[in-house]
Amino acid sequence: MYDNEFSKINMKNKSKKSQGFSIIELMVTLLIASILMSYGLPAYHDFTVRQKMTNDINDWLGDVTLTRVTAVKRGQRVVIQSLAGSDWTNGWQVFMDVDSDDVYTAAIDDLIRIKQNIGGDMTMDSAASGDIIAFDNLGALTGLALLGGGFQMNIDHVDVSKSVLATVSPSGMISTVDL
Predict the structure, then answer these.
(1) Per-domain residue ranges for the chain?
(2) Which of 83, 102, 139, 171 could cysteine-pair with 91, CB 3.0–4.6 Å?
(3) Looking at residue 3, what is its pLDDT?
(4) In this structure, are residues 131 and 81 in contact, taking their beta carbons and an 8 Å threshold?
(5) Model-level pTM?
(6) Could you read off the pLDDT of 1-58 as tens digits, one per residue?
(7) What is the DSSP secondary structure assignment for residue 88, as one 8-state letter?
């Protein structure tokens, strides 16, 4: 008697085949996914913009350090110079300034590295400090940046609320501060 009742219940369960998800279940899942995406996409955009800005700042800081180290290593004046005045977003060049005129001359000076336009909506402005950072054979600042008490650059991005102040002290030490 019990075997027969259990077998009827098992037969009913086996006869119902799984038909997949209902349209309601799919719509609820899509609704939840769209709500999560609406929060996640702006945060992801902000993250990628901040990451690119951090990478560009680190490229510039690395090249300033390269300039200083090369000056000490070679025992000569080495310059990093903006390619477009005080706007460093158009790129910069690092060169050994053999004739000490703060201008790259291909026939005289030795080009060490050039960084092209970094693009984007970032500003790297050193209007108060000029467009040249020069280091002597001891790794200290020389030229106009030294007279101004060091070199400062404001770095901003229009899409995010991140600003950085980069400073090169007269002794050649580099520091950054998030504003």
Answers:
(1) 22-178
(2) 83
(3) 57
(4) yes
(5) 0.77
(6) 555 555 555 555 555 566 788 899 999 999 999 999 888 888 888 888 888 888 888 9
(7) G
Q: Which residue pairs, CB below 8 angstroms and at least 24 apart, start in 134-138?
A: 134/77, 134/78, 134/79, 134/80, 134/97, 134/102, 135/67, 135/68, 135/71, 135/72, 135/77, 135/78, 135/79, 135/172, 136/71, 136/77, 137/71, 137/72, 137/74, 137/75, 137/76, 137/77, 138/72
Query: Which residues have a Cβ under 8 Å from the Cβ of 160 and sit 6 or more positions away?
Result: 46, 49, 50, 53
Helix extents (H) in the chain? 2-15, 23-74, 144-147
CATH topology of domain 22-178: minor pseudopilin epsh fold (3.55.40)
Instruction: Name beta bridge partners: 153.
Output: 166
Judge whether 137 and 76 are in contact, CB under 8 Å: yes
DSSP 8-state class, residue 105: -
7 φ, ψ (degrees, to nearest 5): -70, -30
pLDDT, tens digit, for every residue of 95-149? Answer: 999 998 989 999 999 999 999 887 777 888 887 778 899 999 999 998 776 676 7
